[in-house]
Give the backbone structure.
Amino acid sequence: MQTADAVETIQRELTVFARRARAAAGRMHPELSLVSYTLLGHLEESGGCRATDLAAHYALDKSTVSRQVSALERAGLVARRSDPHDHRVQLLEPTRAGRRVLARVTESRRAVFRERLAHWPEEDLSRFADYLVRYNAESGPGLRD
């Protein structure tokens, strides 16, 4: 396959992957969009951060993050607290309910991936994982930092 054809195939298949991921996220927890799930996961992993940090990390518009965070707060999945180093700054963190929902949705997503990849040889799985890590580590226009 020539480079241009390979790049076109990759772009098309990643688009299909993203559409399926968004649809699956909506089925697993209707109030938790793929973006909300991703933001909630980042808050859990980071131990909390500012909304501007989320926007910068995922290269999202601040208004998008604000809407998602507001929805997560209304659902009782995220809470704000003052930054101990600067009381003017509000940090976001998952609530106990947010952690439970995140754990449940994460396990559901993992189960779907395990089922879908169950027949792949271990070598293919390792190679695919390595390629995804390598791809996501690249920075540039339209890619996360």
Observations:
- The mean pLDDT is 87.
